[in-house]
Design brief:
single chain; alpha+beta; Thiol Ester Dehydrase, Chain A; 2 helices; 6-stranded antiparallel beta sheet
Length: 144
């Protein structure tokens, strides 16, 4: 696998309804797997459940590379890592990995933006988010 170290991953349950006519996990469904991983990552960082009516973060960009098909019998995890924190956004890299084969099946890069929910404009990432992200990601890097 590539030389990117993840400090967070979550298992993904593949359902029969996730499959397309080729008997692979549908590409659109894989987007929802990344949503599951991203949400769980943020809850882990904040150490609380996300209140979807209050959170001031929004997904602004996502790109996905489909490398290998995900099959029903694969054991998949979604690994997540914040790789850059800017003023109003942060960049996350996510992989869908076959845990048994240690193969990256799908890669994603996304940008999450601070959001003023009333004005619907970008705002700076709150300091407590920024601090928690840096602490969480740096704790792994210190072990290398």
């Amino acid at each position: 696998m590539e030389d990117l170290h993840f400090n967070f991953s979550i298992p993904i349950q593949i359902r029969m309804s996730d499959l397309d006519p080729f008997n692979h996990v549908n590409n659109g469904v894989q987007c929802s797997y990344f949503d599951i991983g991203r949400s769980a990552y943020i809850e882990k960082i904040l150490n609380e459940k996300i209140d979807w009516l209050q959170i001031d973060l929004v997904l602004a960009h996502i790109s996905i590379d489909f490398i290998a098909p995900i099959n029903y019998e694969d054991t998949i995890e979604c690994a997540c890592k914040v790789v850059h924190i800017g003023n109003k956004s942060f960049k996350m890299v996510q992989y869908l990995i076959d845990k048994n084969e240690k193969i990256i099946k799908t890669k994603s890069e996304s940008v999450i933006v601070g959001l003023d929910r009333e004005k619907l404009i970008a705002i700076p990432i709150k300091d407590h988010y920024r601090d928690k992200l840096k602490i969480f990601e740096n704790q792994y890097d210190k072990h290398n």
